[in-house]
Amino acid sequence: PPGRKVLIVYAHQEPKSLNGSLKSVAVEELSKQGCSVTVSDLYAMQFEPRATRNDIVGCLHNSEEFNYGVETWEAYKRGGLSNDLIEEQKKVQEADLLIFQFPLYWFSMPAIMKGWMDRVLVQGFAHEFPNCYDSGLLKNKLALFSFTTGGSEEMYAKGGISGDIRYLLWPMQHGIMHFCGVKVLAPHICFAPEYVSEEKRKEMLIAWAQRLKTLWKEEPINCSPEWYFE
Amino acid sequence: PPGRKVLIVYAHQEPKSLNGSLKSVAVEELSKQGCSVTVSDLYAMQFEPRATRNDIVGCLHNSEEFNYGVETWEAYKRGGLSNDLIEEQKKVQEADLLIFQFPLYWFSMPAIMKGWMDRVLVQGFAHEFPNCYDSGLLKNKLALFSFTTGGSEEMYAKGGISGDIRYLLWPMQHGIMHFCGVKVLAPHICFAPEYVSEEKRKEMLIAWAQRLKTLWKEEPINCSPEWYFE
Asked: CB distance B114–A111 less than 8 Å?
């Protein structure tokens, strides 16, 4: 609906890829609805995935023994995080919906996107004990993981060789998003696009555009072990 | 035992951290046993986590549309991967045991270590369909995930707010190591070292050294959904 803000965190090297097209479809469809859409194109930004001392501007809280979690927390409170992190945090703060668009690498997100999680979602900004899970600091936001796989749907079935695809969603959806208080919409998965016809890939794009039309009416999943493991 | 080769892939910024000490304890104890130990200290190496065109030396197989998986597979076959990847692959090839030492970041490994997985374990080297899972190309090797957590053991119990710690081991142990044919030893977990006494942290180091003394007699876990989810 008009006025809603969406941040798409996108991790693919190739604009012509299916991931690139899925991202473009989302920008187009959500803009058409009147949403304001921002894209963090991580490879194009050469986004830094490594959590290092460079993320803190100025002096350290404890320069004797570097603790990344403590240092970024302290830096956040005094406005001393590096500019690239402040920029991403602003985008997250303003967004009603976060869409993560990526190819599945090793049952998870590519390292460049994991680095975005590691570095952007710092304590004080996204969570601050006891404000985690349902009372995480990013509550009232939604997240959706949209990704492509190498393996087929059969491999990722319960009893399949790679196990139920939901097993691998636990760390990303529960461990990251739910921990920060973000409500999770059902994932959007395109299985094995490299092994299907061009026509089938076009259908995948149409299905995504179709889902986005009614996305704001969707209810979040019940992000508890039952959803993943039963 | 004398002659066994161990690669420790280590991801912590601070040598004085518990992770740094756990790494040193392993180097010391395994060397004392007569093993030959190599450490990949990822932050010290400023290891590159991003999967990009730079990983391929020379021309691309398809320069019209960049596909990282296909390009690294092709480059591997013709000896055209970047030097940092060739170095890491040599270390893996020679190792009987891989130890991954890291602090848990967001229910997973830090991005710099995820980048090691994404970039080093390329098709052709670590797997090549149908050589995956029990027939993965790195069979006859062992792996062990050794990590510290922020949350307590109670939070990571079955029924705890963060769910059974085994849930989050699935992508790392099954999705990566088992996929490559590597057999997995039980993980070594130090819960919440930041919230315990200095004495308790020393006990953690002693327990790790103790375990390493009989490590080569251990049987791998049965890496199937039952181990993780039942």
From this structure: yes
